[in-house]
Amino acid sequence: MTVNERIKQLRKALDLTQVEFGSKIGIAQGHLTGLESGKKRITEKTLKVICSVYGTSEKWLKHNEGEMFSTAPAEKIDKISKVFSKLNNELQNYVVHQIETLIELQYKQQSAASEKPKRRKKSKV
Fold it and tell me: What is the C-alpha to C-alpha distance for residues 30 and 19, in angstroms, rounded to an integer?
């Protein structure tokens, strides 16, 4: 299985459309189609973004070794849960609100990045 096929496998495992998957990593649906089909070559930067955004093991994505998802997110969630449980109710509510605000901000940034107009080449006269 190629890295391109594993990208498609990952997207399907996450139950995302090409549009949804691509928008979260800043690439258009057409480009993702090319990556999944092998018609476009994937860059190292795109691989790293996919792994970061989706919690995918880079070793799995590149070489088909190990598990699809890294264990790091689960470890982070455990740590957050332990710290969160030590907060009083008022501070827990504040933390939840801040996380929701960060998610909204992230979504807006990703939407803005995917809507950037393409530069047009100046025509020679």
Answer: 9
